[in-house]
Write a structure and sequence with these properties.
The complex is a heterodimer of chains A (239) and B (52). Chain A is of the alpha+beta class and 239 residues long. Chain A is built from four helices and 19 strands. In chain A, strand 18 and strand 19 form a beta hairpin. Chain A starts with 8 loop residues before the first strand and ends in a 6-residue tail after the last strand. Chain B has 52 residues and is mainly α. The chains are: A alpha+beta (239), B mainly alpha (52).
Chain lengths: 239, 52
């Protein structure tokens, strides 16, 4: 399927009992604070972004969890294009903007409008992020999921791993994991252009235990809720 | 009296954009969802009508 939605950005939500500690960890890993409202934080990545949502004000879950969301410039236009392509999308208003869902081969994909009306939000010009967001989702059918996500502009790198899908500049990445699990539960990983030894040293200096695997090409640190966050070295940007 | 436990249904209406903006801002000020605020406002309006 060719892209029918452009400028979609990987923007997962992390619902946590420890919002301040989780925010601090991801800042240490290279994401940067961009938007804040109470305990809710949006952390900008070099690609993609991550929202930290206090569990106590979450409507959709009562336990720590991550959820895949794609940010799009205009939810209404996106929903109309998806409908025209035969996909079933439903949009509605929220206090901060608009939101939609679309039926996906792996369940329901959530779409959020980019924040335009910033009333009530503290918006910061973020410092330069050094890490990009990679969200892993469990899908029953890798081919169907990849074809569906291509409609949002996410495709494998030419010659790269077929299970890693990238959008345009700044869009972040998705990693498909074949399985029958709950696709709404995504794991969040980061890729960084920094030497991993520098990242590991920074984590350990802050008191985090770091595990090195895959011959030292992957770092794993435990987030405050107990889930593992993997950090890998980003491939150099193509010239 | 609305049943708080009843399943919710989507309810689309056309409103002036400025009113939509004010309602959304009020929801943010009160730290509640837009649906919760509109539900409370409509229920309150209907209750006041019943009391007349």
């Amino acid at each position: 399927m060719t892209a029918i939605v452009t400028h979609a950005v990987v923007s997962p939500l992390r619902f946590t009992d420890h919002p301040a500690e989780t925010t601090a960890l991801f800042e240490l890993l290279g994401l940067r604070r961009a938007v804040r409202q109470g305990g809710f934080e949006v952390l900008q990545g070099g690609g993609g972004r991550l929202s930290i949502h206090p569990l106590e004000t979450a409507a959709s879950t009562t336990v720590p969890a991550s959820s895949l969301v794609l940010d799009v410039p205009d939810v209404v236009v996106t929903s109309r294009r998806l409908d025209e392509a035969g996909l079933t999308a439903t949009w509605w208003d929220e206090s901060w903007g608009r939101q939609a869902t679309v039926a996906a081969p792996f369940g329901t994909l959530w779409l959020n409008a980019e924040l335009v009306d910033t009333y009530g939000f503290e918006v910061q010009a973020p410092a330069e992020p050094t890490a990009g967001v990679v969200v892993a989702i469990v899908v029953p059918d890798l081919v169907a999921a990849a074809e569906f996500l291509a409609a949002f502009g996410f495709t494998p790198d030419p010659g790269g791993a077929p299970d890693v899908l990238r959008g345009g500049p700044g869009a972040g990445a998705l990693r498909l994991v074949q399985g029958e699990g709950d696709s709404s539960v995504a794991s969040i990983a980061l890729e960084t252009p920094e030497p991993l030894a520098d990242v590991a040293a920074r984590l350990e200096a802050a008191g985090h235990a770091v595990t090195r695997t895959d011959g030292g090409t992957t770092l794993t640190v435990t987030a405050p809720d107990g889930d593992a966050v993997r950090i890998t070295r980003a491939a150099p940007a193509a010239e | 009296v609305p049943d708080e436990t009843a399943p919710k249904t989507q309810f689309n209406v056309y409103l002036p954009p400025d009113l939509v903006r004010l309602v959304k801002h009020r929801a943010i000020d009160e730290g509640r969802s837009l649906s919760s605020l509109v539900e409370a406002a409509l229920a309150d309006y209907l209750k006041k009508g019943d009391d007349r």
